[in-house]
C-alpha cells in the first residue's frame, strides 16, 4: 500500500506547472488543515485562502515521496510539511490515510508537531539549481522580452526590441557578477531568478525594476520572460527552507501586494503575466 513506486504513480508526472491540481489528484487537503498549518507554523503571508501554502505543500510532499523521506504504519503514512516549523523550531508533520471516497486515493487527516507514528519522517532535500557555467551566452527566447511588462519599465517604451534585449542581458550579467541570483522552481525543475536593475543600482536591497527567470543550459542561459518582482514569489518560496532566506526586497514586495495576486499567477507566474493577469 505504501510502496514508493505506487505512490509515485498516483502522483503522476512532476513536469507540470499545475502542481496544486497534481496534489489534488493525489490527496484531499481539507481547508481546516491548511488553516491549522498556517496557524502553527512561523508566521508568513500565504496569500488568499492560503493558496501559496497549498502550492508549497504541492511541491514538498512529492519531493518527500520521490526522495523516500516518508514513513508509514499499517494504515497511514507520514511526511513533513516541507521544512515548516513551529515557533519553537519543531518540525510539523502531515498524516495521510486512505480516502474513504476512493478518489483521490489519500486524505490528509491531521497535522501537528506531535503525531503518533512508529518513526517520524525527515524533510526532503530541496534540489539545487544547476551550476551557472562561466562565460555562458545569455539568450532571449522572445524578440520583445518585456512584453506585457512594458508599463513597469516605461523608460524603455519606444526603444527598439534589440536595444531592450541588450539592456536586459546587461542587467542580468551585472546581477550574476554580484551573485544576486536565487533559486526558482518552475515546471518540475530548479533554476534561477535574477533581479534586473535597469534604472538605478545604488541600493540593491530595494526591489528591482523587473526579474528574469533563467534556465541554465550547458553553454547558455535562456531567458524566458521578464516579470514584476511580486509575481514569482510562490515559486521562489518553495525553493528555500525559510521565507527569510529570500531577498528582503522580495519579502517586502510580497507583503505589500499578496492580497491582489491571483491564483492564475500563483499557479504559473510566467503564463499569467504574459496573458496580462
What is the SS-derived class?
alpha+beta
Kindly provide the radius of gyration, computed on alpha-carbon positions and rounded to a whole number of angstroms: 20 Å
Q: How would a textbook summarize the main sheet?
A: 5 strands, mixed
What's the overall average pLDDT, rounded?
A: 93
Tell me the strand percentage band.
Answer: 15-25%
Distance between the termini: 42 Å
- Coarse shape: elongated
Name the helix and strand elements from N-terminus to C-terminus, one letter apiece.
HHEHHEEEEEHEEEEHHHH
Write up what this structure looks like.
It is elongated, with a radius of gyration of 20 Å. Strand 9 and strand 10 form a beta hairpin. It has 277 residues and is α+β, with helices and mostly antiparallel strands. It folds into two domains: 109 residues, no CATH class; 138 residues, no CATH class.
What is this structure's SSE topology?
Blueprint: H1 4-11, H2 19-24, E1 27-28, H3 31-40, H4 51-66, E2 71-72, E3 76-85, E4 91-98, E5 106-112, E6 137-140, H5 161-177, E7 182-186, E8 189-196, E9 210-216, E10 220-223, H6 233-237, H7 248-257, H8 263-267, H9 269-274
Parallel strand pairs: 1-5, 6-10
Antiparallel strand pairs: 2-3, 3-4, 4-5, 7-8, 8-9, 9-10
